[in-house]
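Q: What would this chain look like folded?
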Amino acid sequence: MLVMMDIIETFLIIQFTICVFGLKNVNIVIEPPIVEKGNSVTIQCNYDLEGELLYIVKWYRGQREFYRYVPQSRPTTMKFPFNGLDIDEDQSNENRVHLRNVDYNLAGNFSCEVSTDAPAFYTNIVSKELKVVELSKNKRLPVLVTDKPKYEEGDVLNASCSSSPSNPAASIYFILNNIVICGPCNTTIYKKEGLWLARSNLLLPLFPSHFNTDNLILRCVTHVTDRYQQEIEIQIYNRPYPIPQRVISSGAILTNGKLLLSCLTLSIFVCFYK
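A: My prediction, written as structure tokens:
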């Protein structure tokens, strides 16, 4: 019985030691998480060794290792060939890898695997997705057109919005006076400039409730992932206001005219009498 208690106590001590001194808080941070093609990105691997010695840190894109850090080796870093991957070694170390001129084919999961040295050899691996977008070089605004310049109650709003070319294709939102009519809307995708152009059409009957304000503003907003947004707006209704007319008192004029006429008549009578 005492032997069994000693075994249990030893097991609990080992478990407690692992909880206190093992490899902890391993996480990966990609900044920015969404990067435009041709720009740079930093992949940060954070960890707490809890007193253990670092043995190795490995970096993966998908299942392929492309970089490792081994503090006991000389040199401490090693690169592995990967098409489209450009590592800035001056800004890379045991905690991070800095990638330059990011290509679209690098989009996907990046992982870092951290291992401590003997005798424990704890290992933990974490992953996070990198998104790469490609935008049109001119980065023009969306194109928003309607079938007529102004609308009234009972009309059907007929509008079309086209995004700037991108990869992936943009999502399109129609917003009328800050109310989202649809979004993301159904889109048709076209190939242009080696990228994707999205287009969406809107048909919306206009009821009296749409005209509770003095203006109707239609906006088209395009999103390429959550990071890149463009928008354009047009005014499709403006409540006409009464134009103030010149106030002319015809009565006063007639009255003045009568007074003037009376005075003239009196003057003529006086002269004739003499």
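The CA atoms of residues 52 and 219 lie 57 Å apart.
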